[in-house]
Amino acid sequence: MIGSVYRRYIKNNLFMKLLLSFALITILTIITLSYMMYHVMSQSVVQREMDNQKKAMESVNAFLSEKYESVQSMVLGVYREPRLAADISYFLQHDFRDYIEHGLNRYYEEDVAPYGLSYFANRLEDDPDIRNLMLYSAEKQSLYVYNRQKSAKLHVTNAVHSYVPDAMALDNKNVSVPNPWVRKEIDQWDPRLFAVRAVMNDKNSLKYVGQLLIYFDSDGIWKSLASYKETLKGTILVLTPDGNVIFDSSGTYYGKSYPYMNQIQQETGMLEQESYITTLAQNQAGYVVVGTIPKQEIAAASQGWKRTIIIASVLGILIAILFPSLVVINFAKRTNKIIRFMKKVETGDLTSRIIEPKEDELGQISRSFNDMLDELNRYIERVYKAEIRQKHTEFAALQARVNPHFLYNTLEVIRMRAISQGAHDVGEMIFSLSALFRNVVQQKAVYTLKDELEACRLYLELFRIRYKDRFTYAIECDRELYGIPVVKMFLQPIIENYIVHGIEADRDDNRAVIRFSRENGSIRVRVEDNGRGIEPQRLEEIKEALGAPEEVGGSFGLRVVYERLKLLHGNRAGMELKSKPGAGTTVTVWFPEKEGAGESDV
């Protein structure tokens, strides 16, 4: 079915071939450009979403850093006021009862009211994100706890009754999830909390006396994401180095360890699904902000662009093909009309005329054809049939003596036409062929090695252009040897043998090398290639056929070269063949340097 359609509508229809070629090139070009555009737009969408997420991550980091700095500022605020620092230091190193008595004594003696604990109570009121504020005494192993109800409670957490001292000693991260033993002690089980700790030392002795521990509500982080809530894609998490979840915008991993800690250092990775990953580390506070966006979510954001590009591509293809098709179809109809009139003239109807009013190329061809018919009719009327027969005979005789320059000029016209149409490689091949014909036909009194090399170069150049980047060649010859007379066309059949039988079109490293050398008064020519090579049995047959009569064996080209060399130089000339299947063939020819054939007809 396909074959019949091809033969009927395409094989001999130049316009259909042009139309199909143009349509194919147009479709491939538009599809390629569309794909590149979609790829660029997709990458732009990915980059935009990741930039948006990164800005949101920076807002989260700024929020957490602010909380971390606020806790450090509380401690620095204590150190900046000597009386407050002394009061807090005394509280952390003595029993609560002793602290109260100490405060009352100072009040009566110095008329100074104790306000150490009220300092932290005020900080609790200043920050609505604080859920619990705790002062831990390392010496008394007690925990003084404030909560949002403005109540305070002292917890005895010595090692006999609690694991809190162990937890406070080991848990040295600045920002982390609340320790479960502390949670149990203060009965605080809300999973959406994160803890910030600061060490407290005695201002005078620099002795470690306790810690300030604050639980913040991680839902407060959403305040920093308010401007991104509508456009934010994917998930933002805040993790401790050991994988505990401080914040999770999806709410999935609170109270759990994040299961993909090993993958978050990659740009992309398989989490719940294949995702883009961005990290933002806060080394001082000891946490990392992680942003993940599933690739499917990004792809969904690109669907609008994809549909737009597809629609635009289809419309572009239709428009780009429709209008040229109409033009080509119109030209095809007019051309077929001219062909039909030409066929009528072939049958002997010299009265037919082409009606073509347009002034384009086809119109000019039509008028030229009509003028030719008019001139032909006048010529027929002007001469006799006998004269026509005589002229026909003279023309036949003249054709036999046509100067080869007609062939060169014709090839040059074809070459220039090919170049004008953009087929530069075809133009180069025609130029090489024309030069090769001129070299072969040209009569010279002395045919030198330089002439033979030029003929070989032109021949090889044809096939270098034919096989583009899959075939190369090299000719290595000292200029001192250029003037040596040689047998005409003694090297070209050897090269042709490689081109016809040795070159492999599916390889891109085909190579032929011709080397000339002078050895003991003889010229030695070595033609090497890396082609298919010759099977051992076939190689022996070729060697036996070199000295056989013309009608016996194959390898006509090699046999002719061998016979011509032997005819001119006798036993002082010879030929040697070496070949290995798959590794190439080497043909070596040698002949005396001082004797040679220079006549063009040899």
TrEMBL record:
It catalyses: ATP + protein L-histidine = ADP + protein N-phospho-L-histidine. Keywords: ATP-binding, Cell membrane, Kinase, Membrane, Nucleotide-binding, Phosphoprotein, Transferase, Transmembrane, Transmembrane helix, Two-component regulatory system. Residues 329-381 form the HAMP domain. PROSITE patterns: HAMP (PS50885), HIS_KIN (PS50109). Residues 491-595 form the Histidine kinase domain. Its EC number is 2.7.13.3. The chain crosses the membrane at residues 14-38, 309-332. GO terms for molecular function: protein histidine kinase activity. This is histidine kinase. It comes from Paenibacillus oleatilyticus.
